[in-house]
């Protein structure tokens, strides 16, 4: 640092020794460093002054003002030894300090006082003490204020808690703005089952969430928006089951005016089984809407030529039967219908004889019904060998068992039939059972496998002994039958109305799916979805209230002319609405 006297560098210096002798100074040293030689002033560098201090931790409540105490610091500067009368220029006094983290409630503000530092400067003195001026600039301190924690309370109104959501923690630095996203919640509302013309009251969807405490630098405010909950509510699938079943039957004979042309069937009355039918101008007028199953048949007074029938909806053909010399029939044609749709039936014949173009009353009908969804109630793949699982109850002449993963009746007698019943009754009078055909190399001529619906095998019948075993569909390699047992009837069974006692057929394919369905008084047997036999049984004979289902196998192998052992059954299933 330069040596000055009253703002000017001295041109000469002297001192007087203890003996009173005056001496002229040629040069001045600070240690071994030249600081003056009478020509150019020398300089010395003083180290920086360092200071340290602390501010105690204040506690601040919401909406309070924080006055931070003055930062005090002490420091030490080594004593320079300049020449007499010299001036010392002190560099900036710098200090570092930490302010401990205050705890601040919501909406609080922090106003820390300026941080100041003080220091002590030792006086330089070499030889004669000459008054001088020392310019000490304002001591400044640099410090950091730790991030205060801000707690922001929030209120959430949730009328019905159906979902939950979480708002992630936001980290905010000094001077930054905090954008808090809306809290969101998601929930699932199970699809209600809604009956015809019913109203569904959907509860309010509400979300609740927890907001972690955000942090930000001191002296900044955070605007937290209102906590909102949003959620996605699954749209319930409400399929109006309000399609009114309808049916009409022929009343009075009708002769078609020509052959090889389509003619509308006329002369109808409402079927007593469908009393809510709307009949207008020889057509069914649809009441309600939804998926429907259409069925129809046209019977003839005389057999001659090929015949067909077809169904029209609003004048457009939607289903046509196959040509036959018997009674053309359309069964289970599915389509969607709307209120006011007009459904009609037309007939066709190739015969040129007018007497053979007459439509008979009995057996001619047009019907529509709502499609009923079915749910699996029972299932067994018969894996392994040995007795059936506890899901089955066996009755009859023999015991059905598992052989090579199939239901087998090789060791059962011809009569009485042997049965396997699912261990619990079905929950509906509409019943459908299915199985897979397994021949396993066999070719039975008389030994049969079958499916059963609407049975009550544990009832002691008063009339029609055997009818307690329900309606059955059985098959061999070349014949099939849809019937119920009646020990007093010829051959011990009665076919359903409209079906012969025995019906010849080609051998069902290996792995074919056989289905037997009971709905109302109608019983339908299918193979791979194709109707094989269909007919009715009065509820007075086979009550709709019977709920047991199962399978049957009969082995005629030991009967004279009975042929080989029966086939087997696999993959049993039972379904109801």
Description:
By secondary structure, the protein is mostly beta strands. Among the domains are: 246-370, Jelly Rolls; 376-576, Jelly Rolls. The protein has no helices and 42 strands. Strands 28, 31, 33, 34, 35, 36, 37 and 41 form an 8-stranded antiparallel sheet that branches. Residues 81-94, 104-110, 112-116, 119-206 and 235-240 have low confidence and may be disordered.
Summarize the structure.
Helix content is 0%, strand content 36%.
Q: How is this fold's topology laid out?
A:
Elements: E1 13-16, E2 22-25, E3 28-30, E4 33-36, E5 50-55, E6 65-66, E7 94-99, E8 103-104, E9 109-110, E10 140-145, E11 149-150, E12 161-166, E13 206-210, E14 246-250, E15 254-255, E16 263-264, E17 268-270, E18 279-280, E19 283-285, E20 290-297, E21 307-313, E22 316-320, E23 329-337, E24 342-349, E25 358-359, E26 365-370, E27 375-380, E28 392-396, E29 401-403, E30 406-408, E31 418-422, E32 431-438, E33 448-455, E34 471-475, E35 479-485, E36 493-495, E37 503-504, E38 513-519, E39 522-527, E40 530-536, E41 548-554, E42 568-576
Parallel strand pairs: 5-7, 6-9, 7-10, 8-11, 12-13
Antiparallel strand pairs: 1-2, 3-4, 14-17, 14-26, 15-25, 16-24, 18-19, 19-24, 20-23, 20-26, 21-22, 21-24, 27-42, 28-31, 29-30, 31-41, 32-38, 32-42, 33-34, 33-41, 34-35, 35-36, 35-37, 38-39, 39-40
Which characteristics define this entry?
577 residues, mainly beta, Jelly Rolls, eight-stranded antiparallel sheet
